[in-house]
Amino acid sequence: MTPEELQAARDRIVPDVVAGGLRVLFCGINPSLMTGATGHHFARPGNRFWPVLHLSGFTPRQLKPSEQRELLTYGLGITNVVARATARADELTAEEFREGGLILTAKVEQMRPQWLAVVGVTAYRTAFGERHAQIGPQDRTIGGARVWALPNPSGLNAHWTAQSMAEEYGRLRAAAGFTAPSPSD
């Protein structure tokens, strides 16, 4: 991907990978320029979402970003708090996060997933006005969905290793009663 192609993806909207009645709807902060350019969520090299999803037992093998629609067969989906692609999440305003929280709430109420997993506790805090939220299950429910704040899988989040993230994602998987699919599923 050339720098020009990446810049052309700025502010692009990437379609959600969703269906009604999902077990877990993962919610990123917003698409990266790489995601905007490819149309595949968590596509930036160094993003640990796909490896962590597999290590935690949500998928039977590590999926590539281009295989994102396969998540639906496991009852999983992806959306974002803020829909527009940027180079960095710090380019987003608090108002965009709050507006994104309202839009996300409407999506969840319509699609009715069992769990909403917000991938980035800071994004969750800002979008929903939960200033003291921590990683883990939240008291809040949205449209009947339980909410869990997960660590951001960005390679920039050095506080969490892939293994420690996989353990947290695995806690969600267990709480959701999610049995890991076998490779033959």
Alpha-carbon Rg, integer: 15 Å
Counting DSSP H or I runs of 4 or more residues, the number of helices is 6
Coarse morphology:
globular
CATH topology: Uracil-DNA Glycosylase, subunit E
Q: End-to-end span in angstroms? A: 33 Å
Which spans of ≥5 residues are poorly predicted at pLDDT below 50?
A: none
pLDDT averaged over residues: 93
Say how many strands there are: 5
Strand content: 15-25%
- The second-level CATH architecture is 3-Layer(aba) Sandwich
Query: What structural class do helix, strand and pairing data support?
Result: alpha/beta
Please describe the structure with a list of short key phrases separated by commas or semicolons.
5-stranded mixed sheet; alpha/beta; 185 residues; Uracil-DNA Glycosylase, subunit E; globular
How does this structure look, described?
This protein has helices spanning 3-8, 33-38, 49-55, 94-111, 121-128, 162-175; strands spanning 24-28, 76-80, 115-119, 136-142, 145-150. Strand 4 and strand 5 (145-150) form a beta hairpin. It is of the alpha/beta class and 185 residues long. It has 6 helices and 5 strands. It has a single domain (3-175), classed as Uracil-DNA glycosylase-like domain (Uracil-DNA Glycosylase, subunit E, 3-Layer(aba) Sandwich), CATH 3.40.470. Helix 3 (49-55) crosses helix 6 and helix 4 (94-111) packs across helix 5 (121-128). 32% of the residues lie in helices and 15% in strands. The model has no long low-confidence stretch (mean pLDDT 93). The protein has a 5-stranded mixed beta sheet with strand order 2-1-3-5-4. The longest helix is centred in the middle third of the chain and has 18 residues, at 94-111. This is G/U mismatch-specific DNA glycosylase. GO terms for molecular function: hydrolase activity, acting on glycosyl bonds.
